Amino acid sequence: MSIRNNLLEIREAIPENVSLVAVSKTKPNEDILEAYEAGQRIFGENKIQEMSAKQQALPQDIEWHMIGHVQTNKIKFMAPYVALVHGVDSLKLLQEIDKQAAKHQRVIACLLQVHIANEETKFGLDAGEVNELLGSETFRKMTNVEIKGLMGMASFTDDKRQIQNEFSQLKSLFDDLQRLPKTHNFNPEILSMGMSGDYSIAIACGSTMVRIGSSIFGTR
After folding, report:
1. What DSSP character marks residue 182?
2. What homologous superfamily does CATH list for 3-215?
3. What pTM does this model have?
4. What are the DSSP E strand ranges found in the chain?
């Protein structure tokens, strides 16, 4: 199967209102170009320096998403171009993104990462911390970031019911946020959940953005 065929197959499987992030981490530029030529424009990376090298070498209309854990000292490298940061898991991190975005006179779209998995290794906030962050005076004063929604990763398990429960929990929190008044830096429209192994469950639970790598590019 070619990357192009894989992409077309996945596009047919997901509804039109769901955005597809092709996870291109560790993949060579040739693979990304093959996906690009098949019409894919959104790519996700989990290491800022690798993403920055690709951003400079590849077509400039690509929308780059940072999907991995973000180190504050590396934000400056992606601040000029990153389209969406999926994994904001602290107010401190958001402050640094805001500061670096201001230097480039940009507003960087961000998703708050929520810990829904039954695993210690995954990063993220709980519902209380999400509300605390959004309600803080510090966040209200930020002008160079915009919270566009939530992101979460389900447990790595074959138990579909557990995965469904975790995604439903995140959807419920997302629905709560959508009832809050929108502001200059808060407009929750994106629910990023679902990867190669569980994206169909995620979509059934209300995901609006899926992050798919191995089903497009093959396993590493």
Report:
1. P
2. Alanine racemase (3.20.20.10)
3. 0.96
4. 19-23, 42-45, 63-66, 84-88, 108-113, 145-151, 186-192, 209-212
